[in-house]
Amino acid sequence: MSTTTTIDDATSVAPAAGGRPEDERYPLGKTFLYGLQHIMTMYGGVIAPPIIVGQAAGLDGAQIGLLVSAALLVSGLATALQTLGIRFFGSQLPLVQGISFATVSTMVAVASGDGGLPAVFGAIIVAAAIGLAITPFFAQVVRFFPPVVTGTIITIIGVSLLPTAAGWMMGGDAEAADWGSVPNISLALGTLAVVLVLSRFLQGTISRLSILFGLVIGTVVAVPLGLADFSGVGQGAVFELPTLFAFGMPVFEVGAIISMTIVILVIMTETTADLIAIGEVLDTEVDSKRVGDGLRADMAATLVAPLLNSFPASAFAQNVGLVAITGIRSRFAVAAGGAVLFVLGLFPVLGRVVAAIPAPVLGGAGIVLFGSVAVSGIRTLSRVEYEGNLNLTLVAVALGFGIIPIAVPDFYDQFPTWVGMIFHSGIAAAAVVSVVLNLVFNEIRWGRRSTDPSVFTAGSSARLVVTEEQEQRRAEYFARLDAEHQAARRARLNADVRARVRHGHGRRSGCVSAIDLDADGVPDVLQIREGARAAVAERRPGADSRPLVHAGAAEPGDR
Fold this sequence. Notes:
The chain has helices spanning about 5-10, 30-55, 60-85, 105-110, 115-135, 135-140, 145-170, 180-200, 205-210, 210-220, 255-280, 290-305, 315-325, 330-345, 350-355, 360-380, 390-405, 415-425, 425-445, 455-500, 525-540, and strands at about 95-100, 315. The protein is mostly helical. It has a two-stranded antiparallel ribbon. The longest helix has about 50 residues, at about 455-500. It starts with 6 loop residues before the first helix and ends in a 20-residue tail after the last helix.
């Protein structure tokens, strides 16, 4: 028996298999549009590390272009593995994988030395193998990431990304002459306005693609203003296949391996936070098995990356914000974005087109994206219980440590190198501090006090009680004031009704006055008459039940 598929069926969203929100399916066109939006959001973050490391290694333009193409290719493969997944590899969550910026400082230090890029690639291979080996242990830490920890980390993820958006708004290049110029910032604010207007006044697909349309419209506006440069699009090959070990066989240096292993641990911590964050955004279960599969996909992609002349891959936090903003939860849409990345890696000319998006345009969209990540963390923290525990202190200290490297980047410069590598990332610092304090405050039972555990908590609770009392008194005052105003208004309207009835402008004259038709709850003439009749009946026991007319009006039988 054949089944007929209507147009409505073909264009509707397919229900999520097994009830998981991330398994939603969209029509093919929308799937690739949503995926393209993800790629345009994170494209700048993917190409930045190879450009920076390539310049540090003294490469020419063509060689840096090869690194960029390899980064796109690896990011596409890693995204497909993470979203679609195979046995033991891939969380099957809508996470975009890209070249991690957390490794840039370490790679620059190694690439600037005698080993060059081969030493970087050798260190990445060994560190990724170590990360892959310890993944089963890492996956067990999920139970140590309750909402008070995840909310803190997610908040810091968003806050730590906002300086990047601000730098993009100013032009993206601090050495450029137009850094922080009015045209750059105006273009960024204009892009932001487009995104907000589309999100507010349009519905459906266009609203969900507001970020993509904002990027396109912002770029189009930038062209006549001279703020967009497409001159580099035609430079280089149109199509190019990857070459294994194009920069030579990897070199294994002990110091580089140790440094890179520490960075890989930081990446694993950040990826764990991103996995839990996307679970919070989707309201889907992320257990230890899922975290383990996600970390294995992360480390597998990192292990393969040096073979293709690329660097460690990890989940991109800004795309978590995009999922929260657009509501596009489908992992298949993100997988389509991974396919776009892969194609961009094979066709460098297409990548150069996307790379021409002006930095201020990316900054305008980044304000919404990165800010939404912080708000997601705040929303998670709002569900945390703060009474009778030290959660308030935990959040305060962890947020403080997360903000330190953002506000003062050279704070840890005098510490040993391994300390700076861990705590130089605000995300990693907040993760480490919040997990440790959660163990001390909530997991270890010894020495815990059941009441008033902290003066900070007590003070906060006292302020909260005072605030609630003030709000209650304010509400009572305004309620009483409203009741008095309503009573006075009803009195005036009732007096007007009585006057109209007395002068023959009521129902007896066949005229229905405006007050009789009042819809704000004020009784009309008939209701007033019945009320008066009931009042008289209460004062005169045994009185008849004939309807009374209002005071000043004659009975129907009186002439």
